[in-house]
C-alpha cells in the first residue's frame, strides 16, 4: 500500500508544472473575475490548453484526448490548482462532449466535437426545471414530433452562462406515458433558434451567472437528438457519478485552506494574530483533518477507477464531504474577515479604498458556496442514495 | 417570576406588528434598499410619528424611557419584518450615547431632533486593525487651545453616508491597546478635513470609512470625561447588542416559519418535502434554535436592569454566542431547505440570512464573546 | 418581565435551605450509592420528607400535598439539588399516586395513597415491553376477564427497582380489537401474586437497577383497575408532559457543571490545569451557554403553567435539550478523567487505592446517561411530536 | 498509487477473519473477559502458533518483519471480532520497545519467548499527574554502583496484573517536565520493592498501578541510552497508536454494521426502524465516519515508512483526532439506535463502545492530538 509516483509520473508532473508557469494563469484569472471580460478570458485560456493538447485529456485519444492514466489526470488536476490556473468550463468538455462521443452518431461527432475542443461553440446545460430540483426525472419541458422536427416547449432553470451560450443540451420529455425516466430524450439545441428567450437570475452574492431559458414552440431537427428517443435519462445519468467526484473539489479546498492560513497569520487581534488564537486554530484544524481524509478518499476512488471498478456510491460520499468542507472553509474565512466579511466593493469603493483585501471575496464565496450542498444532487439526495445502494436500507 | 408583557408593551408589539405587516412587504424592502440611502426617509418620518424613535431614550431627553423589554419587543418586530432602517446607528448607537452622556441641554436639543426623525447619526468606533476590540484605537485627538485635532481612520461606520453628525472614539492618551485614554467627540459630518469612502454591507445598509485629517473639534464637543470614553462606549454597545439580538431572533423566526411553510407546499417525488422525516427533524432543530435563543434573550433582558453586574455581562456574552451560532445554523438550513430558490435575490430568504450574518458579526461574533465569557469566568 | 422572588418566596427559600442543612443529605446519598443499603436509604430519606410534609408537595392538599405555588416548587427543587439532596423515587409519588387520586375511586384512594406517602409500599412501573419501545401503544401484555378477576400474561421490561417493589402499576391490553390505544387498561398488581417472576437486566455501567417482570396467568382483581376499562392509555399519557419536563434535570446539570469546573481547575496538564486549556474551556462554555438557555426555557414553561397554560409540546423541547446537555456534561467529565475515565473500582481497588476520585463515577454516569436520550420517549420521538403538533408537519 | 493488499497481506487478513469468525463469538468474549486475566491464555497460545505474535517484529529478532499495512490488517480484524487479548501491551508496547532498542542478544531471547507466547509484558509509561504527556515523569531512578534504584508510582499499566516483565520509564536526570533525562528499564514483575494495585478498565482488560519502593535494577537492564528514553518511547507509541486506530476502525465498522442490521429487523409502528429517513441519514453518517477514518488510516499507513518525518507525525495526530471524534459519534449512535437494548450488558454493542472509548483515551485523546497538531503547524 503506497502513494509513490513512478519516475514517468514525476517527469509528467514537472512538464505540467512547467506548462502552467509559462501559461501565466494569473492573467486568465483576472479576466475571469470581471464579468465584462469573463467570456474572452474563458476562450483565451481554453485556446492555450487546446494548443497544448490538454483541453480534454480525459477524452478517448481518437477524439482528441491525451490518453492519460488516472494518476496522470490526478497529477494534472493538482498542479493546475496549485498554480491557481482556471479549470475549463465543464458544459462542453466534461458534459455534452462525452455524451456525444459515447452515444452520438458519426455525423453528430463530426459536427459537434471539434467546436467543443476549440471553444468555438459555447455550451450550456438544460436539465433542471423550477418544478423538478432533486426530482429531476419529473421534468416537464416537452418535445412533440412535428415532421422531421420536435417542437420544444417549457422552461429550464439554473442554466449557468446561458447568456453566452451558442448551444444548449437539454433533457426533454418526448413521452408522457409510463415511468417518468423512460419518456426523456436528449436534445442538442441551437440557442439562436426562434422561440428561445434567456432571462437572468440574480444570485444573493450579487453575481449573474444563472439564467432561465424559455422554449416557446422551438423547432429542433430530430437529427439533433442523441441516441434513441426515451433514453436521454440513461445517457445523462451515466455522467453523474463522475460529476459528483469532481464536485468534491479536493484540490481547490486544499488551496483555500493554505490561503486561509496565510490570511489568519496576518489578521490581527490585539497584539497577536488570529492563527495564534487557539479556538480559531482548532476550527482551522477541524477542517484540515477532514480535508486530509477527503484527499485520501479521493485517491481510493481513483485507485478503484484505475482498477476498472466503478466509483459508484462512494462518489456520493465524496460529494457530501467535499461540499461540507468547502462550506466550512467559506464560513471560517468570512468570519476571519469579521464585519468586513459583509462589505461590497464597487468601482468607487475598491478593496484598496476600503482597506480590506479579502472581505468582499469571502462574502461572494460564502454566498455562492451555499449552492455546493444543493446542486449536483443535494446532499440529502446523496444520503438517500447511500442509504439505498450501499447500506441496503 | 413573570415573562408576560405589560399592557403598554403588548400595545407596542401589536402596533409595530400591524404597521410593519401593512406597510412593509418584501417588495418594499427591495425598493427601499435600492435607494441611495439604503432606506426610505419617508418611512423614517412615519415611525418617528409613531413614537418608535423615542423608545429607548430617557424622559429628561424627551424619550419614552423604555426598558430592555420595550426595546426587545420593537427590535424583534424589525427583524420579523426584515425592515431596512438605520434604527441601530442613529437611535441605539448615536442617540443613546448622547442620552447616557449625562444631562446636557445641547445634547437634549439634538436628541429632540433625533426623536423627531430630522437627524441621522453614526457612531464611529471601529478601526481596520481592531477586529472586535473596542479599546484598540489608533485614531488620535490632540488638544490644542480650545479644540481637539483628530487624525486617523475609522472603518465600517454604519449609516456613515447618511449621517448629519457622528460620534467618534479617538485616543487622547495611552497606547493603541490601552483601555484608558479613549475619548468620544461629537463631529459634524461636513467638518473640514473629514472625508469618507461610501459603500454597502450585504444587507443593503450603507456604511463608510471616515478619514480624519487634522479635523478640528471644539472642546465642548468632547462627550463625557476625557480619556474615560470606553466605559460609556461599552454601555451603549451592550444595549445595542441586546437590541440587535432581539432583531436577530425576529429574523430567525421569519426564516424558520418561511421554511416550514415552503416545505408544506414544495413538492418533490409527488409529495411535499415537509413530509420527509429527515427534513422534519431538521426543521425541529431550527425551531429549537429559536426557542433556545429566546430563552437566553429573556434571561439577558431580565438582568438588564443591573447592567454593570457580572451576571448581566455574562448573560450578554452567552446571548451573543448562542444568537451567532443558532443564527448561522438557522440561516444555512433555511437556504438549504429552499434549494436553489434560496440562493436567488428575488426570494426574501437570502436577504434574511445576510442581515442575520451582519448582525452576528457586529460588536463581536460568537467566538469572540465566548472567549470574553471564558476570561470573565477565569477572573471570577 | 422579571424573575424577582417575592418576600414570601425568599422566606420560603430560607426555610427549605434550613431544612436541607438539618436533614444531612450526604448520609442519605452515601446509603443510596451502595446497592446493599439503597432500599434502606431510600426509605429513611422519604420518612424525613414525609414528617416534614414535603414528600409530595405537588399533590392536592386534601391528599397530603403542600399546596405550593409553581414558584415554590421550583425553589424547592433548586434548593434540593443545590444541597445535593436525593430526589424521591418517582414511581409511587410522581407517577401512580397522581393517577390514583385523579382517576381512581374513593376506595382505591383510601387504600393506596397513604402507603405511597409513607413509603410503606414500594411501587414500580410496568409500561415498556421488549416489542414496544417508542411505540408504547403496541404493548402485548394481556389481561383477560375471569370472573371478578383478570388473568394477566406477558412480560414488562426496563422495570426499575422491581426487585424491591411491593406493587407494580401496569398498562395491559384488555381489548385486542380496534385502535391499539383504545384496548389498554391501567392495573395495580401486588408483586407477591403467584405467577410473577422478576429477572435482572445488567446495564453496561455494571449496575443492576433494571428488570424484566414476567406475568404467567397472574390473577388480578378487577377492583385493582383504575378508572374505565380501555382508558388506561389516556390516564398514563396525561402524566407524560410533566415527566418530560422533569427529565430535563436542569438543576442537576447546573450542579454537575459547577462540579466539572472544580475538577478541571484541579486536573493538571503539564504545568497548567485543564480549565486554563482554551479548547477545553470552550467546550465547557458551550455547555454552559446551552444550560443558561435551558434554565430560562424551564422558567418560561413554569410561568406558563402558573398561568394555567399547558406546557404541552414545549416539554418535548426541554426533554431534548435537557438530555443532550446531560450527555455532553457526562462526555466532557469522562474525557477530563482521561484513561482514568475507563477505570472500575472494587473493594480491593478503591478510588483512593487507584488515586483517582472521579474516574469511576464519570464512567458510570456516562454509560448510564446514554439512556437519557432514549427513555421517556426517545429524542427522535420528541422531534416527531414537535414536528407534528407544533410545526404542523 | 496503490491501496490493494499484497497476496501475503490478503492471506493474513483472510486467515485472521476466518479464525476469529470461527473461534471468537461474543459469548466467547464474555467468557474470556470474566477470567482473572481478562483473556484466555489458551487463545493466546493459539494465535502464537498462527504466527500473529511475530507480525510486527524485525527478522533479526525472529519476527515476521511486518510493515504498517500488515499491522493494520491484523488489528482491524481484532477490532471487528471484539477480541480481548493483550496484543497491545505485550506485543506492540513491551515487545516492540525491546525490538526497537537495538541488537541485543538478551532482548532477542526474551522476544523469542514473547513470540512463542510464553511471556506477558507491560510498558509502564503513565503517571497520575501526567495526563497524556509522556515527558511528565516523576518516578526517579538513581544510580548506585552497578544498579539503578527506582522509586515512584506508575499508573494504568495495561496488562500489569499478568505481566512477567515490564519496562518502566523513570527519570535519571532533569525536572518533572523535561524531555531529556528519561530512561527506560526492564524490570521483573516480582522484583523486591515492587508492589501493585490490580483493577480493570471498562473493556474488561486488567490494569495495575505499580509502586516502586527502592526497586534495585542492574545497570544492564537499562534499555537504550541513559536519559534518552523518550525518543524510543515515542517511536513505540506512535506505532501502537496506528495499530489501535486500526482496531478502532474495525470496531466502528462492527458497530455500524450491527446497527444497520438491527434497523432492518427492529419494528416500531408496524415498520422496520430502518425505513425511517431520519434514522437512515444518521446511519449514513455512521458509514461516512467509517470511510473517512479508513481514508486517514490509509494515509498514515502510507507515510509510516518514514516515521520521524513531520508529515507522518501530522498524519498520526490527524488520525487520532478523527478516530476519536468519529469513534465517539459512531458509538453513541449505535447505542441510541439500538434503544434500551444498546444499554444492556448482554448485547455486544455496549462492549464495542466501551472498547472504542478506551482506545480513544489511550496515548492522548482527540483534543490532545489536535493541539499537538496545532503546535506542529505553528512551528512549521
Automatic annotation (TrEMBL), chains A, C:
Domain Acyl-CoA oxidase/dehydrogenase middle: 124-218
Residue ranges of domain Acyl-CoA dehydrogenase/oxidase N-terminal in the record: 8-120
Start and end residues of each Acyl-CoA dehydrogenase/oxidase C-terminal domain: 230-391
Protein origin, superkingdom: Bacteria
Record-linked InterPro entries: Acyl-CoA_Oxase/DH_mid-dom, Acyl-CoA_Oxase/DH_mid-dom_sf, AcylCo_DH-like_C, AcylCo_DH/oxidase_C, AcylCoA_DH/ox_N, AcylCoA_DH/ox_N_sf, AcylCoA_DH/oxidase_NM_dom_sf, Mycobact_Acyl-CoA_DH
Pfam families linked: Acyl-CoA_dh_1, Acyl-CoA_dh_M, Acyl-CoA_dh_N
Claim: Membrane is one of the keywords in the record: no
Cofactor(s) needed for function: FAD
Keywords for this protein: FAD, Flavoprotein, Oxidoreductase
Family: Belongs to the acyl-CoA dehydrogenase family.
Protein name per Swiss-Prot or TrEMBL: Acyl-CoA dehydrogenase family protein
UniProtKB/TrEMBL annotation, chains B, D:
Cofactor: FAD
Cell inner membrane as UniProt keyword: no
Domain Acyl-CoA dehydrogenase/oxidase C-terminal: 227-367
UniProt entry keywords in alphabetical sequence: FAD, Flavoprotein, Oxidoreductase
Transmembrane residue ranges: none
InterPro entries in the cross-refs: Acyl-CoA_Oxase/DH_mid-dom, Acyl-CoA_Oxase/DH_mid-dom_sf, AcylCo_DH-like_C, AcylCo_DH/oxidase_C, AcylCoA_DH/ox_N, AcylCoA_DH/ox_N_sf, AcylCoA_DH/oxidase_NM_dom_sf
Acyl-CoA oxidase/dehydrogenase middle domain mapped to chain residues: 123-215
Signal peptide: none
Pfam family, one: Acyl-CoA_dh_M
Family: Belongs to the acyl-CoA dehydrogenase family.
Name of the featured protein: Pimeloyl-CoA dehydrogenase small subunit
Amino acid at each position: 500500500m503506497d502513494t509513490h509516483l513512478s519516475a514517468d509520473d514525476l517527469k509528467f508532473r514537472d512538464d505540467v508544472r512547467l506548462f502552467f508557469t509559462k501559461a501565466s494563469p494569473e492573467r486568465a484569472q483576472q479576466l475571469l473575475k470581471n464579468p465584462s471580460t469573463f467570456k474572452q478570458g474563458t476562450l483565451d485560456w481554453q485556446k492555450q490548453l487546446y494548443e497544448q493538447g490538454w483541453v480534454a485529456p480525459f477524452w478517448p485519444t481518437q477524439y482528441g484526448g491525451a490518453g492519460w492514466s488516472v494518476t496522470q489526470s490526478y497529477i494534472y488536476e493538482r498542479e493546475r490548482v496549485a498554480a491557481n490556473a482556471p479549470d475549463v468550463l465543464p458544459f462542453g468538455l466534461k458534459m455534452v462532449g462525452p455524451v456525444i462521443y459515447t452515444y452520438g452518431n458519426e455525423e453528430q461527432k463530426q459536427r459537434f466535437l471539434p467546436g467543443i475542443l476549440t471553444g468555438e461553440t459555447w455550451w450550456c446545460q438544460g436539465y433542471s426545471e423550477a418544478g423538478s430540483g432533486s426530482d429531476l426525472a419529473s421534468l416537464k419541458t416537452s418535445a412533440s414530433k412535428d415532421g422531421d422536427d420536435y417542437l420544444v416547449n417549457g422552461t429550464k432553470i439554473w442554466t449557468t452562462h446561458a447568456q453566452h451560450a451558442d448551444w444548449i443540451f437539454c433533457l426533454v420529455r418526448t413521452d408522457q406515458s409510463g415511468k417518468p425516466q423512460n419518456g426523456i430524450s436528449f436534445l442538442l439545441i441551437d440557442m439562436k433558434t426562434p422561440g428561445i428567450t434567456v432571462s437572468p437570475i440574480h444570485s444573493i452574492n450579487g453575481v449573474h451567472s444563472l439564467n432561465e431559458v424559455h422554449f416557446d414552440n422551438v423547432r429542433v431537427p430530430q437529427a439533433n437528438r442523441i441516441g434513441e428517443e426515451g433514453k436521454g435519462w440513461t445517457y445523462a445519468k451515466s455522467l453523474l457519478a463522475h460529476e459528483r467526484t469532481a464536485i468534491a473539489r479536493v484540490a481547490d479546498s486544499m488551496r483555500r485552506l493554505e490561503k486561509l492560513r496565510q490570511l489568519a497569520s496576518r489578521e490581527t487581534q490585539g497584539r497577536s494574530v488570529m492563527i495564534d488564537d487557539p479556538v480559531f486554530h482548532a476550527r482551522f484544524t477541524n477542517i484540515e483533518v477532514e480535508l486530509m481524509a477527503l484527499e485520501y478518499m479521493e485517491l481510493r476512488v481513483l485507485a478503484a477507477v484505475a482498477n476498472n471498478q466503478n466509483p459508484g456510491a462512494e462518489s456520493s460520499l465524496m460529494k457530501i464531504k467535499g461540499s461540507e468542507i468547502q462550506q466550512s472553509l467559506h464560513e471560517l474565512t468570512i468570519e476571519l474577515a469579521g464585519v468586513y466579511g459583509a462589505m461590497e466593493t464597487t468601482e468607487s469603493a475598491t478593496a484598496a479604498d476600503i482597506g480590506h483585501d479579502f472581505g468582499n471575496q469571502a462574502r461572494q464565496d460564502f454566498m455562492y458556496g451555499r449552492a455546493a450542498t444543493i446542486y449536483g444532487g443535494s446532499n440529502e439526495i446523496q444520503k438517500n442514495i447511500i442509504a439505498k445502494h450501499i447500506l441496503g436500507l | 417570576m413573570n415573562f408576560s408583557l405589560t399592557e403598554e408593551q403588548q400595545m407596542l408589539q401589536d402596533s409595530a406588528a400591524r404597521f410593519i405587516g401593512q406597510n412593509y412587504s418584501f417588495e418594499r424592502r427591495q425598493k427601499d434598499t435600492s435607494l441611495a440611502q439604503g432606506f426610505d426617509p419617508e418611512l423614517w418620518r412615519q415611525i418617528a410619528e409613531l413614537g418608535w424613535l423615542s423608545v429607548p431614550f430617557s424622559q429628561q431627553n424627551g424619550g419614552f424611557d423604555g426598558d430592555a423589554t420595550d426595546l426587545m419587543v420593537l427590535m424583534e418586530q424589525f427583524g420579523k419584518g426584515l425592515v431596512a432602517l438605520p434604527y441601530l446607528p442613529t437611535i441605539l448607537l448615536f442617540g443613546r450615547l448622547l442620552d447616557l452622556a449625562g444631562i446636557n441641554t445641547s445634547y437634549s436639543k439634538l436628541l429632540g431632533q433625533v426623536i423627531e426623525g430630522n437627524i441621522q447619526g453614526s457612531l464611529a468606533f471601529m478601526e481596520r486593525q481592531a477586529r472586535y476590540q473596542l479599546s484598540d484605537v489608533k485614531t488620535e485627538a490632540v488638544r490644542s487651545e480650545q479644540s481637539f485635532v483628530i487624525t486617523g481612520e475609522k472603518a465600517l461606520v454604519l449609516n456613515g453616508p447618511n449621517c448629519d453628525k457622528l460620534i467618534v472614539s479617538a485616543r487622547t492618551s495611552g497606547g493603541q491597546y490601552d483601555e484608558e485614554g479613549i475619548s468620544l467627540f461629537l463631529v459634524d459630518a461636513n467638518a473640514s478635513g473629514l472625508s469618507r469612502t461610501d459603500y454597502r454591507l450585504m444587507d443593503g445598509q450603507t456604511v463608510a470609512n471616515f478619514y480624519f485629517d487634522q479635523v478640528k473639534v471644539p472642546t465642548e464637543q468632547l462627550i463625557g470625561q476625557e480619556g474615560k470614553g470606553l466605559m460609556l462606549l461599552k454601555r451603549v454597545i451592550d444595549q445595542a447588542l441586546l437590541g440587535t439580538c432581539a432583531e436577530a431572533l425576529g429574523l430567525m423566526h421569519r426564516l424558520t416559519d418561511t421554511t416550514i411553510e415552503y416545505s408544506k407546499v414544495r413538492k418533490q417525488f409527488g409529495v411535499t418535502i415537509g413530509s420527509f422525516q429527515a427534513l422534519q427533524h431538521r426543521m425541529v432543530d431550527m425551531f429549537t434554535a429559536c426557542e433556545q435563543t429566546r430563552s437566553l434573550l429573556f434571561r439577558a433582558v431580565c438582568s438588564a436592569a443591573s447592567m454593570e453586574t457580572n451576571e448581566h455581562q455574562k448573560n450578554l456574552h452567552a446571548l451573543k454566542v448562542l444568537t451567532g451560532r443558532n443564527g448561522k445554523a438557522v440561516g444555512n438550513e433555511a437556504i438549504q431547505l429552499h434549494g436553489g430558490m434560496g440562493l436567488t435575490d428575488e426570494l426574501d430568504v437570502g436577504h434574511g440570512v445576510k442581515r442575520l450574518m451582519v448582525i452576528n458579526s457586529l460588536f463581536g461574533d460568537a467566538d469572540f464573546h465566548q472567549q470574553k465569557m471564558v476570561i470573565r469566568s477565569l477572573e471570577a
